[in-house]
Amino acid sequence: MKSSANTIFAMIMCLLLISSYGCKKDDKDLSAKEAIENENVVAVGCPKTEYRDWKTSEYVLPYPMGQSYMVTLSHCGGSFHSIDGPDQFAVDFAMDIGQTITAVREGIVVHVEESGIDGEFPNNLVVIEHEDGTFAQYMHLTQNGALVEKGDKIEQGQNIGLSGNTGLAGFPHLHFVVTEKGSFHYPYTSIPVTFRNTSPNERSLAAGYRYTAFDY
Ligand SMILES: [Zn+2]
């Protein structure tokens, strides 16, 4: 039952790829030939992008161990944010309002906005700077949904916020993006990341799949 549902989903993904890219048979960058063995997850991701080995990634999923959420938008393949736009490598996780969000990596909180009301602006977010100067940005948090303050030192996996529906969310979800060092303000430049504490994600997470956070 599960595998037939996955097969149907893979067909839908392929149709989406065909409509997005023309799905040329000889295009090695497209995902159809790169499906991860034994997982039935279509390995999506942006063409010509190098993704770090997920098994040794410094990143873990942005929610507590044992929890599982659906990715609704990811990178380039299937349902994605934008190609070559600031949010090219962002990932959306469908989350009801008030779910716990955790730090993907340790760092220092450099920006907090939590005054927004769900369904309205501003977009609430927590931004954490990592030791290499990159930033993790956790967006659309609920009102007063920041559990940390500017200047706080954050451990990996620490609770940092509560999900919501503020800013340009459209529906409750976490918009997660890692951005290059320098300025974290929009329009930033996003960076592709993979996650070590979940199922195989060679080219990061695929839209339309649920990912469970494992122990790490
Ligand atoms: Zn998003």
From TrEMBL:
Provenance organism: Meishania litoralis
First-level EC class: hydrolase
Keywords, ordered alphabetically: Hydrolase
Catalytic activity, EC: 3.4.24.-
Name of the featured protein: M23 family metallopeptidase
